[in-house]
Amino acid sequence: MNSKIYSVLIGGKAGEGVKKAAQVIADLAVKQNLYTFQADDYQSLIRGGHNFSLISIASEKVYNSYEKADLIVSFDQRSVLRHLDDMAEGALHFCNEGDSDDPRVIPLPLSALMKEHYKGTAHISLAAVAIFAALCGISLTSLQDIIKAEFKRQVEENLAYASAIYAIIRERYPEPQITFDTNATPPAKIYSGNQMIALGAYAAGLDYYYGYPMTPASSILHYLARMRDSHGVHAIHAESELAAINMAIGSVFAGRRSAVGSSGGGFALMEEAFSLAGMVEAPLLCILSSRPGPATGVATFTGQEDLYFALNQGHGEFARIVASPDCLERAFSLAAELLDLAWECQSPTILLTEKHLSEGLINVDLPLEDVPSLLEDKAEFTKPYLRYAITESGVSPLKFPGADHCDEEDIIKWNSNEHEESGVRTDEAPNIVAMRDKRDRKYETIAKATKKYQRIAKYGQDGPIVFAYGSTAYELREAQKYLPFQIVVPIYLEPFPFEELAEYQNAEIIVVEHASHPNFARFLKEKLNVRVKANILRYDGRHFHTDELIAKLKEAIDA
Amino acid sequence: MRNLISTKENTWCIGCGDFGIFAAVRKTIQALNEAGTPLADIVMTSGIGCHGKIFDYLQISGIYGLHGRAVATASGIKLANPKLKVITFGGDGDSLGEGLEHTMFAAKRNMDITLILHNNGNYGLTTGQASPLSTLGFRGPTTPMGNVEKSFTPVTLMMEAGASFVARCYSAKIDHLSQILHQAINHKGFSFVEVLQPCVSYNNTYKLYNERCQIMEASPKDEDEARRIAKSEDPIYLGIYRQEDIPVYHEQINIEGEPLTLAQRKALLQEHS
């Protein structure tokens, strides 16, 4: 059924370079003017175990992986055994000689070639790159160029090893086995979801990102750290998530756009200071990339269990914005919007995503035209300056210590205690009510402010209505190529985009989400009084392959 | 110079050591201001506890943050605007209990901020529970049979963590405290000033400190001597235990200048794709 989509699976032990090889294969495909989608299935360990990467390659946009692969390269016995059943009809499955005597598998003398060509550490994974290049009919020179560019160590040995494998495959298959008809000019660069989030926030003025490593959010920290000298952005690995968010609040107090990010556990540690951000009215972007929980959960897999955790983040009552990107382009634009909205409304914002989007890799263009322009500073300040001046919108003009707009009389006090307009603490009942009412007026202000952005996405016009949020929309969009249904995706979750979704009041819908409880369905029932015909749930940490999801959807639709 | 005392009603107990710290801090800020530091360039953070109330009384910008996190908040301010002189007020429960990690790491990084540790040897505001600096046998609501945990020695703890300026003062010796604070705030790097501060309600140490506190005539000749005399309980030595010039965090990570404009960012990202 996936005739237009070529599916590649690379499998082996952690430390064998599975992910890297897959990335280089995807790069090679992009260089052939193709679209790619890559998902990595890996464990929380450094050596051993079993990792595999899936790459979908097509001449049109492709959003998901498929259960059955057309090409499998297995670097060890475990991979061969695990993926024998994942072979599509006519699939080629290569392995190292001696790892399998199954007739469906094609052994190659990888060990012998590594012994011949490497003096030190050998890179078995280059075999996958060489096999793919040879099967596509990509020239040896092009293969060598990409190997030189992507594998900087042991260049000569790599080239000799890869060239030898390339020669074997070309001899065996003189004609290209993987061909596409394409006149498209797809985006030339592959990004991960986390890279898009980082770049979107950066485009909207991010200066400081504070974090503590936790999969699947860590790569935001890594990516921004590498951009320091080239882009003038700072990524700081703090001593803990507690430190990270309190530092970030310090940085926004001093007038610089800042963000924090983590997965569920680290985000839980940030929770008290998330409330602090609500109380002191700190404009702070918080990124929550989920994995299956509770607690340490399943560290390197995907899940959407944190919907209510995000919506209800922090103790006490205060306004916030929660939104979740449904695609990589949106990850970029939404990060930019949420950073800007944080400053416009002086409220914390949460970008909720999940491992499948954070670490998914697709060739996309950066939607640079979607970056909001910086807020004009037209604030009128009271004299004396009052940090928490009571206003109709609930938003009080911001001054920053040491900035040009400050004079010797200005005192800027942010206070975690309930406070008067001056920022000095109060216990007085009328003051408490006045300040609470001021902050509560921001619910309305925030709801208005979000309306200038695209708050929902719809894909398809006809057929049954299927709701999802986050990267689950990608899974549905790929399934939609084979089955008629319409996809509705709330991008903004809080405030809820009632206007845009009014037509779905009381509608019969199917809901797809990655949780064991239908949390998102419950949320939609509360908001829209929908009738949920079926919940399609998955909570084993894996994303749905396209074929699996189609089967589930058919079952739900026919029920 | 504007009045540094706010109109907020002061609710420290009569005789609280915090008054001495408050007086010394005002004196220091006035001296800094007279020497050319604009008041707009001085900011403070505080945690939660009796010490934190100084935030409402002292007319200086800042963040009255969360219990234990004031050092982290201060670090974020410094990184975002290195021009600012950032002073953190912390309690012993606050900065060495709930927030010990931040204190240790600010010292380790040599973050260019000043931490004034109000050491009253207990949790005053929450009615006198034992703190990380309570003495053995200290009786409070959580230790009715007496505290069995040994106290930290803040001076040696901070020396080990890497603080580049370490001093100890006594809240009743206001001139000495003010002079040390001036040096601490002007010191480039992490400055830690432990202030022995009697708590008249739950841990009244005036008599003890008045008898035992002794200002060092000269700084310790080396680190070994510094560590040894820091542990001395009688006399209790006041003064500077360490002052060294080592690289500060924000300079090592190249924080400088104005943020890039959106247009500059866009241009850089266009090259990217």
Write the layout of secondary structure elements.
The complex is a heterodimer of chains A (559) and B (273).
Chain A: E1 5-14, H1 18-31, E2 35-41, E3 48-58, E4 69-74, H2 77-83, E5 87-96, E6 105-108, H3 110-117, H4 126-136, H5 140-150, H6 155-172, E7 190-192, H7 193-203, E8 208-211, H8 218-226, H9 228-231, E9 234-237, H10 241-253, E10 258-262, H11 264-269, H12 271-280, E11 284-290, H13 307-311, E12 321-323, H14 328-345, E13 348-354, H15 355-358, E14 361-363, E15 413-415, H16 429-450, E16 456-459, E17 465-467, H17 472-479, E18 486-490, E19 492-494, H18 498-501, E20 508-513, H19 519-528, E21 531-537, H20 546-558
Parallel strand pairs in A: 1-4, 4-5, 5-6, 8-9, 8-10, 10-11, 11-13, 12-13, 17-18, 17-20, 20-21
Antiparallel strand pairs in A: 1-3, 2-3, 2-14, 7-14, 12-19, 16-18
Chain B: H1 17-34, E1 42-46, H2 54-57, E2 61-64, H3 70-80, E3 85-91, H4 92-98, H5 100-109, E4 114-119, E5 122-123, E6 129-130, H6 154-161, E7 165-170, H7 174-186, E8 191-196, H8 206-212, E9 213-215, H9 223-230, E10 236-243, H10 249-252, H11 262-272
Parallel strand pairs in B: 1-2, 1-3, 3-4, 4-8, 7-8, 9-10
Antiparallel strand pairs in B: 5-6, 7-10
Helix pairs in contact in B: 1-7, 4-5, 5-6
Tell me the CATH architecture of chain B. Answer: 3-Layer(aba) Sandwich
Largest inter-chain contact set = A-B, 64 and 53 residues
Percentage of helical residues of chain B?
25-40%
Indicate the radius of gyration of chain B in whole angstroms: 19 Å
Assigned CATH superfamily of chain B: Thiamin diphosphate (ThDP)-binding fold, Pyr/PP domains
Strand content of chain A: 15-25%
Corresponding CATH architecture of the largest domain in chain A:
3-Layer(aba) Sandwich
Q: Spans of chain A of 5+ residues with little confidence (pLDDT < 50)?
A: none
The description of the largest β-sheet of chain A is: 8 strands, mixed
Radius of gyration of chain A: 26 Å
Report how far apart the termini of chain A are. Answer: 24 Å
Described by strand count, sense and barrel closure, the largest sheet of chain B is: 8 strands, mixed
